[in-house]
Specification:
This protein is mainly alpha-helical. The chain has a domain of 79 residues. It is 51% helix and 0% strand. Helix 1 runs antiparallel to helix 2. The protein starts with 64 loop residues before the first helix and ends with a helix.
Length: 144
């Protein structure tokens, strides 16, 4: 099978030197068949410590049955106080707001508005007290 070069130019072949494989003087340079992976080691510039956690101790006084009963009773007491305050102060505040809307004169309106603010302030006091007691219970249980 023969092929023709364009324009009938003679083909130039580079001169190839014969390699004598039998001679011990000459070694062949061969590329390795397997390239090994060489990862680079990267060091962290800064390391942050994990936040300190409270150690867990078994059978702490707060987790004993007597302590749990006391905490449940305190929680029931706080919730009962909130329910009583809502029952007592809610209608008083609603009545004061109704009186303020139906007031015929300015002094009556001011008096009713002040009564409504006083009822709301009393309810706020009960709520903040309950919040303090519940926060103390949560801290005692380790939830805060």
């Amino acid at each position: 099978m023969a092929f023709a070069l364009p324009y009938d130019t003679p083909m130039k072949m580079p001169y190839a030197r014969p390699v004598d494989l039998a001679s011990a003087d000459r070694r062949l340079a061969m590329a390795p068949a397997v390239a090994l992976w060489r990862p680079e080691i990267v060091l962290a510039t800064s390391i942050t410590a994990a936040p300190a956690r409270r150690a867990v101790a078994l059978a702490e006084p707060a987790s004993r049955p007597e302590a749990l009963v006391t905490q449940l009773d305190t929680t029931r007491s706080v919730l009962a106080t909130l329910a009583d305050a809502r029952r007592a102060l809610g209608p008083a505040a609603a009545e004061a707001h109704r009186r303020a809307e139906e007031a015929a004169s300015t002094p009556e309106r001011v008096s009713a508005t002040i009564a409504a603010y006083r009822a709301e302030a009393a309810l706020d006091d009960v709520l903040s007290g309950a919040w303090r007691r519940m926060s103390a219970l949560m801290e005692e249980r380790g939830l805060r």
